[in-house]
Amino acid sequence: MKLLLKAVTIASAIVATPALATSWTLAPESSHLAYGTIKKDTVGEVNSFTNLSGHVSPDGKVEIEIDLSSVETNIDIRNERMIEYVFRKAGTATLTAEFDMQEVSKLGVGETSIVDAEAVLSLVGTAVEIDTEMFVARLSETSVMVSTNNMVFISTEDAGVNAGVDKLMELADLPGITRTAPVTARLVFNMDDKKVDAVTGGDIKAGKKVFRKCKACHQTKEGRHGVGPSLHGVIGATAGQSDGFKFSSSLQESGITWTAASLTEFLADPKGNIPGNRMQFPGLKKDEDIVNVIAYLQDKTKG
Ligand code: HEC
User: Fold this and answer.
1) Which domain holds residue 265?
2) Domain shared by 125 and 147, yes or no
């Protein structure tokens, strides 16, 4: 049901914007996430995390995992105390955000842009909302860099780590540690090989495999009809109109326009969706297969 709703909202867009997008994976060696602390009002120190991982899905959902045990304060005992008292051995923190990947995909190599980002940092059981601007640079065809445009401040109270900071002060016999930490990030993402349809989010390669089930009857080349009609240019076309194929009248008179939404319903249950049509196929059971085969058709059979 969720899938259907999604397909309906994108139905018109898929015809208008056949743009393809990919997913992206964080390149840990070129990425850097750091925060600052100030003790005794005067001594500023930089801490960072050396172990980051993450990815961005084609629709711009960013997920970054921060291995809290990889914190680097440049002093071993401080690393240990940080992990034990501040991060309370929580393992990983996750940063999730929504990002306009269409905007990013439009950037030419060497071009930059500033985009809004709304992120949520989940740290030791507390979620901190972050609303900020990010600076994006397209480094190459296959890589982008995203960095904080300004410093981002995270309050230790919001982050739920105040008690841990108290403990650090006590252990290190410090009169004070500031209760807000500036955070900066530089994240480099590489494009994944996998080709994903920007609008449906379907995986084109996986869709090609699903299409094997259709191949007994359908080809994607123009005008090549078999048991079933050629599916060339099918997305955006009116049902039952392909030249040179004798369609059943039920399909021909259905008045359907093939969009991601209508195909989703048809492929899930061909007989139920258009009673009386002559496609001898029980339908695809998995939502995933449907999304992927539509992505494949979208890519392969452009009109
Ligand atoms: C056993 C043969 C067979 C298989 C397998 C099959 N189809 Fe069909 N398909 C047909 C026939 C025959 C029609 C025409 C039905 C009619 O005229 O009522 C058709 C019609 C269609 C149409 C409508 C085309 C148009 O121009 O309106 C689409 C879309 C379609 N099939 C997609 C698929 C996909 C995707 C698969 C695999 C998941 C598939 N079919 C599997 C035989 C098949």
Assistant:
1) 199-300
2) yes
Whether residue 273 has pLDDT greater than 90: yes
Structure tokens at 117: 């980002």
> How many CB atoms neighbour CB 226 within 10 A?
12
User: Which residue, among 95, 94, 73, has the nearest Cα to 84 in the 3D structure?
Assistant: 73
Cβ of 267 below 6 Å from ligand 1: yes
Q: Is 229 in the pocket of ligand 1 (CB under 6 A)?
A: yes
| Within a domain: 94 | yes
Average pLDDT of span 244-256: 96
Contact 97 CB / ligand 1 (< 6 Å): no
With a 6 Å cutoff on the Cβ, whether 248 touches ligand 1 is: yes
Confidence of residue 1 (pLDDT cuts 50, 70, 90): very low
Place of tokens 């009809």: 225
Average pLDDT, integer, range 217-240: 94
Question: pLDDT averaged over the chain?
Answer: 85
Residue 2 has pLDDT above 90, yes or no: no
Atom of ligand 1 nearest to the CA of 280: 1
- Ligand 1 binding pocket mutation candidate from 217, 235, 266, 267 (most atoms within 8 A of CB): 217
Report DSSP state, residue 70.
Answer: G
**Ligand 1: centre distance to CA 63 (Å):** 38
Cα(228) to centroid of ligand 1, in Å?
5
DSSP string across 77-94 = HHHHHIIIIISTT--EEE
Residue 12 lies in a domain: no
Single out the residue in 195, 214, 237 at which a domain terminates.
195
| pLDDT (average), residues 187-215 | 84
